[in-house]
Design goal:
Layout: H1 10-18, H2 24-34, H3 36-42, H4 47-50, H5 53-67, H6 75-88
């Protein structure tokens, strides 16, 4: 629930909806985003870690690596579709 009244980021929404299919891939992205080496390279801490931005960067990497040839235009829809496909397998 978002009781603070702030808008949720796309990745936060994506994580919630994909968890209806499976927790495995969202949990994996959280673990990747928590790696200290990744956070130090990206310079991320605090709010960027809390709102899912680092997770989204990890998702972007895997989506482009594994399905980049299918990317056409809207990155948000592309990432959501990729997460859905991975979660269903």
């Amino acid at each position: 629930m978002n009781r603070g009244g702030s808008h949720l980021e796309e990745q936060e929404i994506r994580n919630c909806s994909i968890r209806l299919l499976s927790n495995e891939f969202p949990n994996f992205l959280q673990k990747v985003a928590a790696y200290e080496i990744l956070r130090s390279v990206l310079g991320h801490s605090g709010e960027l870690l809390q709102n899912g931005y680092t997770e989204e960067l990890a998702l972007r990497f895997f989506a482009m690596k594994n399905r980049g040839e299918t990317f056409t235009h809207d990155v948000s829809d592309f990432l959501t579709q990729y997460m859905e496909q991975v979660a269903k397998k």
